[in-house]
Write the structure tokens for this entry.
Amino acid sequence: MQTSAADDAKAADWKFRQTAGQFARAGYAIRGALDASLLARVAEDGNTASDVYGSIEAVIANDKSRPGFTVKVAGQLGLTCQSCGAGFTWPVDAMTTIYVARDAAELDAWEDESFESLEANEKTSALELVEDELLLAIPYVPRCEKCSADSAPKTIEFN
């Protein structure tokens, strides 16, 4: 997924807010390394991020009726094991395709579909989309490799 440093977007490009429809326009693409200092929501719970590379690229569905875009992210998250309290590294390599509905009525019609979708006029930034993908990659209950391998449930009795 990595490209040359010359292709990397600048921090201002990542933060620029635009509509979902603009992300889905033909030929749209933004990619590059993201500085961990930009990922404030990832760090809220004491997590860290390093070597993060993200991209957003426009796509058109096979029948060309559903414009959309892919959000890709790769990197390392520093998490805390919920069983033993040790810090550990969690590799991330994730991708989501988000389809863009023309209006609220079309979005409502897609409600039962099994894909991610946004209304065309909903504003966001490439940074928020990539950071969302990182946040979704964090396990609900982070466990280090040692604790994950130990299949016996941990029980603590309180008196």
Remarks:
- Helices lie at 11-15, 20-23, 40-43, 104-109, 126-137, 145-149.
- The chain has a mean pLDDT of 87.
